[in-house]
Amino acid sequence: MAKFVVTPSNEDQRAAWAGGTIPEVERVRPGLWSVPVPIPVNPLRYVLVYALEVDDGVVIVDAGWNTDEAYDALVAGLGVAGYAITDVRAVLVTHIHPDHYGLAGRIREMSGAWIGLHPADASLVHERYDESAIESLVSKERALLDRCGVPAQTLDELAGASMMIRHMVSMAKPDRLIEDGDRLDLPGWDLRAIWTPGHSPGHLCFVSPSRKLLFSGDHVLAKITPMVAVHPQSAPNPLADYLDALAAVRELDVEEVLPAHEYRFLELRERADYVIAHHGERLAEIERVVAASDGVTCWEVATKLTWSRPWESIPPFMRRAANNETLAHLVWLESRGRVRRVPGDRDLWITPQAGA
After folding, report:
1. What is the pLDDT of residue 5?
2. Integer Cα distance of 243 and 331 in angstroms
3. The pLDDT value given to residue 42
4. What is the pLDDT, as a whole number, of residue 291?
């Protein structure tokens, strides 16, 4: 597939991403600021927090990790825009992953801001971030990985691989639930919420029709594709949800996409088409791997796929992500009758005709 390259809205921001640095705080348009907030020990390096000016302060889209470095960067970035952390009136969280949700509670403590989240993600907060529930979630992940065929000697390591970042989230129940289509009452803004599940069950984008802007969170990014995986907190068929949502979003009349990572860009429709085609190629590759075997586990499929680096050099956390992404694609293929699952202690995947 020929690679499609989007047009960056700001070349300096794109250059910062390409050069491995963090971009500057930027006045995107009158009343709108982009504030990069660093992510510790992560190839994404930063999350782009957007500050929308309102009558009595700012409303921010996403928050960053709950680390002192991230908090200080957010405070400093808001200062460049002429605001203090106490001026934040609301935190619109696109989804509950730590780099988007982690600082929301701390911001609320400092400013009294309300936190908004989609109900599908709000329902996951307790199990995901409450200390009393973490062990249960890890146990569910371990059982899923076991059925996928993950080697026994690495099961515990992979199941608990994300616990190292648990402390970077300040658990905060949302004050408001934001549903698909909700129009947010923000003075000077005509912001509408769009439910875009897949990367998380409750992922939200926000569109401003008058400004023709899309705050896309992780749903659509300039270069990379978001992880869409089956895991204990995912929907049954997250890839189907994601592709349906992406097909709907591509129809929006917007001139600029403001993602949570990398850099702002112009071509929403073309980028969406490219990502949809990318998943089509991945589905075909997985189908070929299944067809070449007499029965193969999800883990075995994952080890045979093309990744950005050799499988042997992928660290444990990313191997778990690769396995669960592969499972999402297998589930999609199963839902279309293109592969078949043979349930067992370790599920096997076969072609529809095998064993018929």
Report:
1. 93
2. 13
3. 81
4. 97
Give mean pLDDT in consecutive 10-residue pieces for the chain, a chain of 356 residues.
88 96 97 96 92 98 95 98 98 96 96 98 89 85 96 89 65 94 96 98 98 98 97 97 98 98 98 97 98 96 95 90 97 98 96 75
Nearest residue to 352 via CA among 343, 341, 339, 342: 339
Cα Rg of the chain, angstroms: 20
What single letter denotes the amino acid at residue 22? I
Token pair listed for 188: 């000077």
Predicted pLDDT of residue 134: 80
Query: Are 111 and 86 a contacting pair, CB within 8 Å?
Result: yes
Whole-angstrom Cα distance, residue 260 to residue 45? 11
Backbone angles phi, psi at 330, to 5 degrees: -65, -40
Tokens, residue 299: 């883990």
Residue 189's closest CA among 165, 168, 206? 206
Residue 52, token pair as written in the block: 């929308």
- The whole-angstrom separation of Cα 82 and Cα 78 is 6
Q: 3-state class of 229 per DSSP?
A: coil
Cβ burial of 58 (10 Å; 0-12, 13-18, 19+) is buried
d(CA 39, CA 9): 23
Of 227, 222, 238, 232, the residue nearest 322 (C-alpha): 227
**By the 8 A CB rule, do 114 and 175 touch?**
yes
At residue 167, the 3 state secondary structure works out as helix
Local structure of residue 202 (DSSP, 8 states)? T
129 token code pair = 């971030």
What angle is formed at CA 350 by the lines to CA 345 and CA 352, rounded to 5 degrees? Answer: 130
Helix locations, the chain, DSSP H: 11-19, 68-80, 98-101, 104-111, 119-122, 125-129, 131-148, 152-159, 238-249, 268-291, 298-304, 316-335
